[in-house]
Amino acid sequence: MKKNIFQKLVSMNNSEVAIVVEMSGNHKNSLHTMKRFVKKTIELKGDIIKFQVYTPDTITINSNKKDFIVNSNNSWKKYNTLYNLYKKAYTPWAWIEEVTKDLNKIKFPWFASAFDLSSVEFLEKINCAAYKIASPEITDIRLISFIAKTKKPIFLSTGLASFDDVDLAVKTIKKIHNKFAILKCTSSYPALEKDLNLKTIQMLKKKYRCAVGFSDHTVGDLASKVAVAVGATIIEKHFKLDNDKFSIDSAFSMNLSLLKKFKNDICNIKKCLGRETLDIPELVKKNFTGRRSLYISAEIKKGEKFTHNNVKSVRPFYGLHPKFLSKVIGKRSKKNLFAGDRLKKEYINTL
C-alpha cells in the first residue's frame, strides 16, 4: 500500500476505492483478539485499518442521571449508562500503541477516530497519519480545529449532521488546509437501506468539491456496492472475527473472512463503471459483423427497381448502411444482382 494513501483518498481526482476496516469494539476486551483481528486484516488485504481512540472519561461522564442513560430502544440498553457502554467498548490506548508500532514497521496504513484533545495528542505521539471526525463529534468545533492544525487529512462523517453542521466543520478545516473528505453515513446500528439516501454522495461531491465515501452500518454488502456505483471512493465498514456473536458491534459487522471477496467485488464494480464513453473496446470490434446492412434478397436484373421485396436490412454489416434504404427504394440497378450480394452505392442509379 502506498505511503501517501491518505493524501490520495482526499483528492477529488482519485478514482480508486479504498476499504477501511473498522475494528471499533470488536476486540472483545482482549489484546490477543485485537492482534488476531489486525493480522487477519493484513492477510486478507484490507487497504486500511481504523481504530477508535477514547476512554469512558474522555467521551462522557460517569452519571446515572436521566441524560446519561442508554435509550431503552437502543440495542446497547443492557449497559444502562453511557459510561458503562463506553467502558465495555473502548480500546485501551496501550494496546493501540503496541499494535500500531507493529503496523508502522511494516508500513501498513492505519488511522483513528479521535474524540477529544487528549486522544489527538496521544495519536500524534504514535504517528497517526490521518483523523476521522465521528458523527457525534461533528459539532465539536474546538476538536475539529485542533485536529486540522495537525495538517493531516480529515474524514468527516455525516451520520448526525445537517448541512449547516457540515458547512461549519468544513469551514473550520479550510481555515487551515483543504485535505478532507466526507463520509456519507446513517447513524443507526444496524442502518436500514431505506434510510441511507446514497444519492446524497453526488450532492456532497458537488457542494463541497471533495472526495466522498460511505461509512456503512448496514448488514451485508449491498449498500457499499451501491455507494461505489454512485461515486464513493472510500468504504468504511465494521468487521469482526468470524463466529463472533458477542462483541459490542458484532450485530452489524461483517465477518473478516468475507473481506477479500468484498474488496474484489468493489474493485469489479469500479471496472464495470469505467468511464463516460461510447468508444468500442478492441475485444468488441470483432462483433461489428453483427450489425445490419443492406443486402440483395432476391434476384434483380439490370435496370429493375429496388423494392422492399428484393432489398433487406440484415446481418452482417458489409453492405450499405441501413440509413440509405428509403433512398434506395424506387431507384434502378446498374447491373444484375443476386440474393446475398452486398448492396453498394455504385450499383444504384442516381443515389
Structure keywords:
351 residues, alpha/beta, TIM Barrel, Type Iii Antifreeze Protein Isoform Hplc 12, 8-stranded parallel barrel, two-stranded antiparallel sheet, 11 strands, elongated
Give a description of the structure.
The protein has 13 helices and 11 strands. The protein is of the alpha/beta class and 351 residues long. The protein has 2 domains: 5-55 and 90-273, TIM Barrel (Alpha-Beta Barrel); 282-347, Antifreeze-like/N-acetylneuraminic acid synthase C-terminal domain (Type Iii Antifreeze Protein Isoform Hplc 12). The strands form 2 sheets. An 8-stranded parallel β-barrel has the order 1-2-3-4-5-6-7-8, surrounded by 7 helices. A two-stranded antiparallel sheet has the order 10-11. Helix 10 links the parallel strand 7 (211-216) and strand 8 (234-240). The longest helix is centred in the last third of the chain and has 15 residues, at 259-273. The protein is elongated, with a radius of gyration of 30 Å.
Q: Calculate the mean pLDDT score and round it.
A: 94
CATH architecture classification of the largest domain: Alpha-Beta Barrel
CATH fold description of the largest domain: TIM Barrel
In whole angstroms, how far apart are the ends? Answer: 63 Å
Structural class assignment: alpha/beta
- Sheet with the most strands? 8 strands, parallel, barrel
Radius of gyration: 30 Å
- What portion of residues belong to β-strands? 5-15%
Care to count the β-strands? 11
CATH superfamily of the largest domain: Aldolase class I
What is the spatial order of strands in the main beta sheet?
1-2-3-4-5-6-7-8
